[in-house]
TrEMBL record:
GO terms for molecular function: GTP binding; GTPase activity. It comes from the Eukaryota. InterPro entries: Guanylate-bd_N, P-loop_NTPase. Pfam families: GBP (PF02263). This is Guanylate-binding protein N-terminal domain-containing protein. Residues 18-179 form the Guanylate-binding protein N-terminal domain.
Length: 240
């Protein structure tokens, strides 16, 4: 859907842009190991300007980081060109649903999740490594503490309209939509070039080929292959 239409839902400020946005549910089945899941999700992450991680439970840093480790591992499947310093993936939004811990800020939750732990155990070392890899992989990491959407849990079984949501939930949802819309204003880049639908269709088979051969994804190399294939196709068309 057009970003401009997406941005103004629920009465939010409209973002002027000719960008179109799509949505992908990348939830894994959990029946394979982290290496398989990370390779499976790598192309989706490379094509996504915004990644949303939903969490409907209390703040359990170990469990959350274990799940986010799939994203950290996915970054290892991508190799940027020499001298390129940009982040591999876009913006990560970690959403805590039904948050009812008063006097707790998003900044405090961010520190709990991403501040380096002290200790030498294997578990602590693995969590600290995941923290470092996530921070290095994403353009930004945003924490959202969403309250209960409605005052009565009985309403959750019904189809709820926006105006039926609690004011605090409405406000948080508007803030979230505005932030995401601002981040989506500029298209995702692939090898420093805007990622269009045409480019996406061309590069996915090359992503799959690299991953099936157990090779890392090299955006610069894949982009060059795409351009060579396009040039060859144009030449063949001209010779016909």
């Amino acid at each position: 859907m057009p970003l401009e239409a997406f941005s103004r839902i629920s009465g939010c400020r409209s973002v002027a842009s000719n960008v179109s946005v799509g949505f992908v549910d990348a939830e894994g089945l959990g029946d394979r190991d982290i290496t398989y899941d990370s390779r499976l999700v790598s192309p989706v992450l490379l094509a996504s300007k915004v990644v949303i991680f939903n969490w409907k439970d209390s703040l359990q840093a170990d469990r959350i980081l274990n799940l986010l480790a799939v994203l950290a591992k996915a970054a290892q499947n991508v190799e940027l060109a020499e001298g390129e310093t940009r982040k591999v993936f876009g913006h990560l939004h970690i959403i805590f649903r039904d948050w009812n811990f008063v006097n707790t800020s998003a900044a405090e939750v961010h520190d709990t999740l991403f501040k380096k732990e002290k200790g030498v155990s294997k578990e602590i070392s693995n969590r600290n490594l995941a923290r470092l890899e996530l921070v290095e992989a994403f353009d930004s990491i945003n924490i959202w503490l969403f309250p209960l959407p409605v005052s009565s849990t009985a309403q959750l079984s019904e189809k709820i309209r926006f105006e039926q949501l609690q004011p605090s939930f409405q406000s948080k949802l508007r803030d979230f939509r505005t932030r995401v819309s601002e981040q989506l204003q500029d298209p995702m880049l692939f090898n420093q070039q805007p990622l269009t639908g045409h480019t996406l269709a061309e590069m996915m088979p090359l992503f799959a080929e690299s991953l099936n051969d157990n090779r890392v994804i090299m955006p610069e190399s894949i982009y060059s292959s795409m351009r060579r294939a396009e040039g060859k196709k144009m030449q063949q068309t001209a010779e016909q």
